[in-house]
Every structure is written in C-alpha cells, then in structure tokens.
Amino acid sequence: MSKTRVICFANNKGGSGKSTTCSNIGYSLTTLGYRVLLIDGDMQMNLTLSFFDDEKSLEYAKNGKNLYTAVKEQRDLTPYILNTDYENLDIIPSSTLMSGIEFDLFTKWQREFILKSGLASVKESGVYDYILIDAPPTLGCWVINIMCASDFIVIPVEASPWGLFGLANMFEFYEQVKRIAPSLELMGIAVTKANERKNYFKQTLENLGGLDNVRLFKSYIRTDSSIEWAQDNSKPVMVYKRSSRSAQEYLEMTKEVIEYANR
C-alpha cells in the first residue's frame, strides 16, 4: 500500500492561480500514473468548475454532495468523492455555502482538525497517491484546517507588481500553523502568470529567490490563452491543448512536486 501525500495550494491573495495550478498538477499526476483526489475548499468553486460545467457544479453545491456538508456535519469524506471524466482523477466538490464555514467551525471541539479527521479514512485506505486541496484566499480557521490536514503546502504567486503583496503574512501564518501541525512542510513557491518580457517578472524571481529557507520551483507558468480556454471548457489544459506551452510547463512543475514529495 503506497503512502498518500496531501498537498494544499494556498495564498491569501486572490488571483494567484491556486485553483488552476491545483487542477492542472492534479491531472498531470494522473498522466504519470498516479491516482489523485482533488478537494475544492473554496466557496468560489473554481476547482469544481475546472471539471464540471456550471449546471452540474451548482447541482452538487445544492444537493449536499459537497465538502461543506461533510465538514459541517463532521463526516467521513469518502461518500462525498465523485468521479471526473478522467481516469484516476476524483474530486470532492465545493459549495457557495462554504462562505459560512468559519461560523460553523467556531463552536466545534478541536475545530482545527475537523478536515484532517474527515480525511483520515481516505488517506489511510491508500486508494490515492496524492490528495490535492485548493484553499480559499483567506487566513482563518478553515485554512488552518486545510493546512493541518496536509503534508505539504505549495504557494502559487502571480508574477505581477501586486503578486508579492501579503506574502509575508502568508509565511507568518504558515509558521503559526506549524505550532499545531509540526510535520507540515512548505514545498515551495510556484510562479504563475509569468510574462518574461516584463521587468517585474525578473524582479519577482529575484525577490522570491532571495528569501531565506524558501524553495522556489524551477518551473514557472507563463501567461497562455490556452489556460483560459481550457477553463472555459471545464478541462485541464493538457486535455484542451496538449501541445500548448502551459501544458508542458505544468507537467514539468508536476515532476518537481513528485521529486520533492518522494525525496
């Protein structure tokens, strides 16, 4: 039985490419022979919408077959797993009701570990090689839950003038979570939406590369219209256009994820 590794994608700044990175690394892992479960922890449901159309996503959000229901009622997550159209790639969808999860967690006993508890049987079953969790762009009890349930954290950062805004808060939050989840590791920073022709792209890499004890992925994701078209069609970019630049970049980044997780 293989060891299941749980990786969360988190950044308190919106628009950093969390959901896109999570979904495309998830799919890329399956092309390399791994079994993957995706968990959508964001009320915006972008990860869910990456694999289902609007109608189907809203149906899951309303019928209780979603992460919000499972966490609120502190249930085992196994019955909430849904198949996608792709072999070895499953998902637990989100709900717009996730906007109220902080309130629902407030009075719970050991509220920081509810997701970890619900995920325990899934992880211990060994059915999946990787479980990837998309976190919302906040720093609250729910994100603490997600981090406590994870082995690693990846922080996607947009290569833009505002991309690094709030990153110091993210690092501080991570260090605080490690006090109650000491095994959590920062796998690294993944640069997204990069435009090599812009000066701020080089500045972003220099600033991130100069951080102490923070790993920077060698691969980065450049701006590519194929990503937007893939999202519009609720498909991974490798499925929408396998020959695209971004499809290859996500595959290379995925190989780095595997190398780090198995080191």
Fill in the keyword field for this structure.
single chain, 263 residues, alpha/beta, Rossmann fold, seven-stranded mixed β-sheet, 42% helix, 14% strand
- CATH fold category name: Rossmann fold
How many domains comprise the coordinates?
1
Largest sheet: 7 strands, mixed
Oligomer: single chain
**Shape annotation:** globular
CATH top level assignment? Alpha Beta
Tell me what the structure shows.
- The chain is α/β, with parallel strands linked by helices and 263 residues long.
- It has a single domain (5-261), classed as Rossmann fold.
- It has helices spanning 18-31, 46-49, 54-63, 67-72, 101-105, 114-125, 141-148, 167-177, 199-209, 225-232, 237-240, 245-261, and strands at 5-9, 36-40, 82-83, 89-92, 130-134, 152-158, 185-192.
- A 7-stranded mixed sheet has the order 3-4-2-5-1-6-7.
- α8 links the parallel β6 (152-158) and β7.
- α1 (18-31) crosses α12.
- The radius of gyration is 17 Å and the shape is globular.
- The two termini are 18 Å apart.
- 46% of the residues are buried.
Itemize the secondary structure elements and their pairings:
Blueprint: E1 5-9, H1 18-31, E2 36-40, H2 46-49, H3 54-63, H4 67-72, E3 82-83, E4 89-92, H5 101-105, H6 114-125, E5 130-134, H7 141-148, E6 152-158, H8 167-177, E7 185-192, H9 199-209, H10 225-232, H11 237-240, H12 245-261
Parallel strand pairs: 1-5, 1-6, 2-4, 2-5, 6-7
Antiparallel strand pairs: 3-4
Helix pairs in contact: 1-12
